[in-house]
């Protein structure tokens, strides 16, 4: 599903040049659950952003579903993203001015889904995340775990083939973190490909494969046998 | 999607009440100014256009030069109307208008002085769109001693009675029959007639032969206003092109003999108000003020728009996450741009709604300031409302575009990582915007100061005569005029009355000008000279200084027949300089073939009076000639110099004496200095407009600065906390936050000074007597704008600086 070839990402400021990714070669298949690990600043989030089409690589190739996409325009990337990719962030990134329902609804608005259809799908997603009773609340009125469930509902609302999760449990206590991981695992079991950046070994245990990054390089790839 | 936009917008406003209120206030105030100014300008531009045929109506005016002295007057000779109709096939109709000054009207017990009622031809209702409510427009003014009143006057004298056929006594004993009542003439007319006497009345008074005379001499007295209605499809230029032939036929012979160069001036009716700058005209507007006001409106709106841009971009970090999330879940950039534009448009339209309400509320006050009758309503001024909506639309789009493009350009990958975007990107631009705002404010402040000083200068300048405590009354009773000396004696019995004097013209307002012959180096030369006929007490009462020779003397019999006193300007003009006394002067010239020398006076100069300002300070002091007479003809204006004490009693005393001498004509007076001040009405109005709008522009700029400084203080919370932990005092921190703005305001002033200096010099050049712009005005401007700026910034800075550093350091 995703293939990178000699992916390089260099950040330049006036004085400093930082190589965030250096010759990263990866292949991730449909239905996989992959965890990316590594110390702070090793390039995990950068890799995730590039795979998620939020950022462009400086060099190298990126293939998504068989298309070579690293030179796509912003408009093409946006279109590809909204159909195929859902995001879950450490800091949830819900819009404060919108209610739970409206936050989850947002991707469907940009996909021009009809009102009644939107309502049906949002309610369904909220039920599934067990947060439907909070539909009319604003993000600040929810606990961290609840916010993250809303964020996941938003990520899955468009039925994406791929979910990118950037330390999804990083801001949560263990109970809530556990719940979020359960949801992600469940999604994966239903066929959604998941790529997750994490610091937590126990979270990584849920994945099929762990990719270790260090200073922009892929150090090891551990295939894990599902128990 | 639209719903989602609106929800976000409303919740955003709600969540950021402080900035929303600042923004809406700024935009509303900007729009209020703009709407008021647009109303004002629209009214100025609409003058006389309510006349359906205004495009075909022209006024004939005169531009003539006699002995190198050029005069341009709004009037024309009496025979122009009928002879133009006869000679020019383009002319369909003519209307002559001759003023009659203030007159006393009497009906039963009711007795008032009325003005702005003129003698006009009966064609007036066919040419102008004045609507007759009662009476027949074709016949109302066709008979002598007919009068048409406007509604207000008709109501005033006749109440609920039917005015038609009623008889009004005008002046001492002239009876006029009311033959019509017309609608009040709208305020946007250059002539605001309140009624008409029939022109036939003048014909009856003077005799048909004299009145209708086309003798050559009648073409050289510019005594009335002439309006022509041209036929459809005829060109205004045609009149000018064909005029030389007309001139040849009617005017050239005598014109050459008098040595006058004459040019016909043809003015379109709708141009008179703003573009005419002729003498003897009705008070006109000034196209310059239209430009100034348009510029002010533009600047104030820009300041308000800049505020919005400034605050929107400054607060972009707060919005960044929303942008990131929206982009991640699939928003294209153009969708976001649309969203942000919609946000700015909602704000401006909210501001517009407030502005319209406020304008409605303050319009009466504004009207009284600018002496107009402006109205804002859907029925009367739909175009203004449409224009306001357009204005808000443009304002919203222009001020919203930059933030929209800026905000929508954020990269989600950067934002969502959690790192905040520093407001740096717009930092330079924001500085430029603050500078431009304060530049405009500084120009407005210095402009206000300069206009104010000039006005003060004009009001207080030594006019060269004593204008204070002079009560003036116009003597309309002809019997009374023959008894002026006994009246003066009677008045002087009151210890609070110093002097009483009379003259034929009101000093500073009306004057007569006629051809004089003066003793030049090569014999007698011609000059059109102002003159005034005064009595023996006049120069003393006015406290005019003699520079050469003597004053008029009762004991010298020849003074009334052959003595002149001129001013210094005349002595200079005629090259007499220090030796004016004894020079020959002659008022009026003998014409070839004319036997009688009526109106000609030959004599010598007996004295030179120091120059005095008998015209507004806009104008230079022109040469003037005084002659003395106690003849009743010349005792039209009476001046009474009062003591400061018991003024009210003294006035009552004057009234009592007056009524004894003139039981028929009521006592009516004004004070000379007050009347002179009215000369500066338009400057006073300009001062007001300048003050109000500069105040508002400063207010808007301050709002922006307030918002910006609070934002910056907020943004630098952490830095301030660290500095405080390291030992900085509150005052040091306030200084740190304030100095940036102080720098910007000083730069703004440096830019503003040359612009203001130039612009105000252009304005001051209209005045012959003007102040010089001195450096302290600009110093004051800098101090004022700094004071306002610092006060605005200091509060927020102080709050930020005195906050608990522990909270600050934790701030993220």
From TrEMBL, chain A:
InterPro entries: AAA+_ATPase, ABC_transporter-like_ATP-bd, ABC_transporter-like_CS, MacB-like_ATP-bd, P-loop_NTPase. Residues 2-227 form the ABC transporter domain. The keyword Translocase applies. Keywords: ATP-binding, Nucleotide-binding, Translocase, Transport. One of its GO terms (molecular function) is ATP binding. It comes from the Bacteria. Pfam families: ABC_tran. PANTHER family: CELL DIVISION ATP-BINDING PROTEIN FTSE, LIPOPROTEIN-RELEASING SYSTEM ATP-BINDING PROTEIN LOLD. Belongs to the ABC transporter superfamily. This is ABC transporter ATP-binding protein. It comes from Marinifilum caeruleilacunae.
TrEMBL record, chain B:
Residues 295-410, 692-805 form the ABC3 transporter permease C-terminal domain. It is a multi-pass membrane protein. It comes from the Bacteria. The keyword Membrane applies. Its main location: membrane. Coiled coil: none annotated. The keyword Cytoplasm does not apply. It is found in: Cell membrane. Residues 20-242 form the MacB-like periplasmic core domain. It holds the Pfam family FtsX. Keywords: Cell membrane, Membrane, Transmembrane, Transmembrane helix. The chain crosses the membrane at residues 21-41, 289-309, 345-366, 386-407, 432-453, 686-708, 744-764, 776-795. This is FtsX-like permease family protein. It comes from Marinifilum caeruleilacunae.
């Amino acid at each position: 599903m995703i293939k990178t070839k000699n992916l390089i990402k260099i950040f330049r400021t006036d004085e400093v040049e930082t190589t965030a990714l250096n010759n990263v070669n990866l292949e991730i298949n449909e239905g996989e659950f992959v965890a990316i690990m590594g110390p702070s600043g090793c390039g995990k989030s950068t890799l995730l952003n590039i795979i998620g089409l939020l950022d462009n690589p400086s060099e190298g190739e990126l293939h998504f579903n068989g298309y070579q996409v690293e030179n796509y325009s912003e408009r093409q990337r946006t279109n590809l993203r909204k159909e195929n990719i859902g995001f879950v962030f450490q800091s949830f990134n819900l819009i404060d001015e919108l209610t739970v329902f409206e936050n989850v609804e947002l991707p469907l608005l940009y996909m021009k889904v009809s009102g009644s259809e939107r309502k049906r799908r949002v309610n369904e997603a909220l039920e599934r995340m067990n947060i439907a009773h909070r539909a009319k609340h604003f993000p600040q009125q929810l606990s961290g775990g609840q916010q993250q469930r809303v964020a996941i509902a938003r990520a899955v609302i468009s039925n994406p083939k791929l979910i990118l999760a950037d330390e999804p449990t990083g801001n949560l206590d263990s109970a809530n973190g556990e719940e979020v991981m359960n949801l992600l695992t469940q999604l994966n079991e239903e066929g959604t490909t998941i790529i997750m950046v994490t610091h937590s070994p126990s979270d990584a245990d849920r994945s099929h494969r762990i990719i270790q990054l260090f200073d922009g390089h892929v150090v090891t790839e551990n295939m894990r046998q599902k128990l | 999607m639209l719903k989602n936009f609106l929800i976000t917008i409303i919740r955003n406003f709600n969540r950021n009440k402080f900035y929303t209120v600042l923004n809406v206030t700024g935009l509303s105030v900007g729009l209020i100014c703009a709407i008021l100014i647009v109303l004002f300008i629209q009214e100025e531009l609409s003058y006389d256009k309510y006349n359906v045929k205004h495009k075909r109506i022209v006024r004939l005016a005169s531009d003539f030069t006699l002995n190198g002295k050029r005069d341009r007057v709004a009037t024309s000779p009496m025979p122009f109307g009928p002879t133009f109709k006869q000679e020019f096939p383009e002319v369909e109709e003519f209307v002559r208008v001759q003023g009659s000054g203030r007159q006393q009207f009497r009906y039963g017990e009711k007795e008032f002085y009325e003005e702005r009622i003129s003698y006009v031809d009966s064609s007036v209702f066919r040419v102008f769109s004045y609507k007759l409510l009662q009476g027949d427009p074709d016949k109302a003014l066709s008979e002598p001693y007919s009068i048409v009143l406007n509604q207000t006057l008709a109501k005033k004298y006749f109440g609920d009675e039917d005015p038609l056929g009623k008889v009004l006594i005008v002046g001492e004993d002239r009876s006029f029959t009311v033959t019509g009542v017309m609608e009040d003439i709208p305020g946007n007319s250059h002539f605001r007639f309140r009624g008409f006497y029939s022109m036939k009345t003048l014909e009856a008074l003077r005799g048909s032969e004299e009145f209708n005379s086309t003798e050559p001499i009648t073409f050289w007295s510019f005594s009335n206003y002439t309006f022509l209605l041209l036929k459809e499809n005829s060109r205004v230029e045609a009149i000018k092109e064909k005029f030389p032939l007309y001139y040849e036929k009617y005017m050239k012979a005598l014109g050459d003999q008098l040595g006058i160069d004459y040019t016909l001036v043809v003015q379109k009716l709708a141009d008179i108000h703003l573009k005419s700058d002729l003498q003897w005209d009705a008070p006109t507007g000034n196209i310059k003020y239209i430009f100034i006001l348009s510029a002010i409106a533009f600047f104030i709106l820009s300041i308000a728009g800049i505020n919005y841009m400034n605050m929107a971009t400054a607060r972009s970090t707060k919005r960044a996450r929303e942008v990131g999330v929206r982009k991640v879940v699939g928003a294209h950039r153009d969708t976001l741009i649309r969203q942000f534009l919609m946000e700015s448009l909602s704000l401006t339209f909210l501001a517009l709604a407030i502005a319209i309400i406020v304008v409605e509320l303050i319009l009466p006050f504004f009207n009284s300031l600018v002496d107009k009758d402006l109205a804002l309503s859907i029925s009367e001024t739909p175009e203004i409302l449409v224009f306001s909506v357009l204005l808000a639309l443009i304002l919203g789009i222009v001020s919203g575009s930059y933030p929209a493009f800026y905000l929508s350009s954020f990269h989600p990958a950067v934002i969502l990582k959690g790192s905040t975007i520093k407001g740096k990107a717009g930092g330079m631009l924001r500085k430029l915007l603050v500078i431009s705002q304060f530049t405009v404010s500084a120009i407005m402040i210095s402009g206000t100061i300069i206009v104010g000083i000039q006005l003060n200068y004009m009001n207080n300048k030594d006019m060269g005569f004593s204008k204070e405590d002079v009560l003036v009354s116009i003597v309309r009773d002809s019997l009374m005029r023959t008894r002026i000396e006994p009246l003066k004696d009677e008045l002087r019995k009151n210890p609070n009355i110093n002097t009483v004097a009379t003259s034929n013209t009101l000093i500073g307002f009306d004057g007569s000008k006629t051809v004089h012959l003066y003793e030049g180096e090569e014999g007698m030369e011609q000059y059109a000279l102002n003159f005034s006929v005064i009595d023996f007490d006049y120069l003393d009462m006015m406290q005019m200084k003699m520079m050469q020779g003597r004053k008029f003397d009762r004991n010298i019999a020849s003074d009334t027949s052959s003595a002149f006193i001129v001013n210094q300007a005349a002595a200079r003009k005629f090259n007499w300089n220090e030796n004016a006394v004894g020079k020959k002067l002659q008022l009026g010239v003998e014409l070839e073939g004319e036997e009688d020398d009526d109106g000609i006076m030959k004599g010598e100069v007996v004295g030179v009076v120091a120059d005095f300002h008998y015209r507004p300070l806009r104008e230079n002091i022109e040469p003037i000639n005084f002659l003395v007479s106690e003849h009743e003809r010349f005792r039209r204006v009476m001046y009474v110099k009062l003591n400061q004490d018991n003024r009210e009693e003294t006035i009552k005393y004057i009234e009592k004496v007056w009524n004894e001498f003139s039981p028929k004509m009521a006592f009516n007076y004004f004070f000379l200095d007050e009347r002179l001040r009215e000369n500066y009405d338009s400057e006073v109005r300009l001062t007001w407009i300048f003050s109000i709008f500069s105040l508002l522009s400063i207010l808007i700029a301050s709002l922006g600065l307030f918002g910006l400084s609070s934002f910056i203080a907020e943004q630098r919370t952490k830095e301030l906390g660290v500095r405080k932990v390291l030992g900085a005092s509150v005052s040091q921190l306030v200084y740190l936050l304030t100095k940036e703005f102080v720098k910007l305001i000083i730069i703004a002033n440096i830019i503003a000074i040359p612009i203001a200096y130039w612009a105000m010099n252009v304005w001051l050049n209209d005045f012959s007597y003007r102040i010089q712009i001195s450096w302290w005005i600009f110093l004051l401007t800098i101090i004022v704008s700094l004071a306002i700026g610092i006060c605005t910034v200091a509060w927020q800075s102080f709050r930020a600086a005195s906050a608990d550093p522990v909270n600050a350091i934790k701030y993220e």
